Amino acid sequence: MNIERNISKFVVPSDVPVSAALSQISKNKRGFVLCVAPSGRLDGVLTDGDFRRWISAASEINIEEPVLTVCNRSPVTAPEGAPIATLAEMFDSRITFVPLVAADGRVTSVALAHAVDGFEIAGRMIGAKQPAFIIAEIGINHNGSVELAKELIERSIEAGSFLAVSQRVEIGRRERRSRRAIHARRAGTSEFHTRANERSA
Fold first, then answer.
1. Strand partners, 17
2. Buried b (16+ CB within 10 A) or exposed e, 77-103
3. Which residues contact 137 (CB under 8 A, 6 or more apart)?
4. For residue 50, what are the contacts with CB-CB under 8 A and spacing of at least 6?
5. Which residues touch 169 (CB under 8 Å, ≥6 apart)?
6. How far apart are CA 99 and CA 116, in angstroms?
7. What is the mean pLDDT of the segment spanning 62-80?
8. Which of 136-140, 150-154, 186-190 has the lowest mean pLDDT?
9. Domain locations in the chain?
10. What is the number of H-type helices and E-type strands within the chain?
């Protein structure tokens, strides 16, 4: 089970035409949309099944009529903050999602029975059936330079990365002494000699 808090891909205004709701269902690849009022209140849901039942029952089909006339006005919902165990018990072969609503009726998130498509980062889906999401590890290779960090980020984008991670390390007195010792060994001198030269410079 997955709690999806970024619900924008599942939401359509209640007054949009059925055609727009179907387009959103195709985009989110989840088979449903939440029909909401301007206040964010949940007015109903439209699923693929709801649409098929409407087509079967209607004598005339006009996909430009408001989705509110077609959607299920009494969907299964749960209160915001409901325990995971309670939500898990609500799922079956027919119910694969449950809108979570606040006390004032606003939909705040959606509980999904399973995260088939994974999750989203910056507009990209991450999951087993998705293309690889490449992360560049910059670490501390920027040496504390903002300009070098920007350059490394640019290079990582050119190499095909979608995300770059970096670190910033606060160096204390002990670490500074250790770093001097490392530089001294590399230079073939002693740490004492290096520190003496720093003081005399």
1. 66
2. bbeeebeeeebeebbeeeebbbbbbee
3. 164, 165
4. 70, 71, 72
5. 140
6. 17
7. 94
8. 186-190
9. 2-116, 134-166
10. 6, 11
Per DSSP bridges, beta strands 32-36 and 11-13 are: parallel
Selected residue with higher pLDDT from 83 and 183:
83
Question: What's domain 2-116's superfamily in CATH?
Answer: CBS-domain (3.10.580.10)
pLDDT of residue 200: 45
Query: What whole-number distance in Å separates Cα of residue 107 and Cα of residue 96?
Result: 17
Q: Which residue has the higher pLDDT, 162 or 91?
A: 91
Kind and range of the H or E run holding 119: strand 119-121
What tens digit of pLDDT does each residue of 147-176 get?
888 888 888 888 888 778 877 666 555 555
Write down the residue that tokens 């985009």 correspond to. Answer: 27
Q: Hey, which residues does 99 pair with through a beta bridge?
A: 110
Contacts with 186 (C-beta within 8 Å, 6 or more apart), sequence order: none
Distances, alpha carbon 92 to alpha carbons 95, 98, 153, in Å = 5, 11, 45
Prediction pTM value = 0.59
User: Can you tell me whether residue 190 is helix, strand or coil?
Assistant: coil
Of these ranges, 37-46, 48-57, 171-180, the one predicted with the greatest mean pLDDT is 37-46
Between CA 78 and CA 75 the distance in angstroms is: 10
Tokens for 170, please give them.
């606060």
Q: Which residue is it, tokens 């449950």?
A: 98
State how far the Cα of 135 lies from the Cα of 5, in Å rounded to an integer. 24
Q: Which residues contact 191 (CB under 8 A, 6 or more apart)?
A: 177, 180, 181, 184
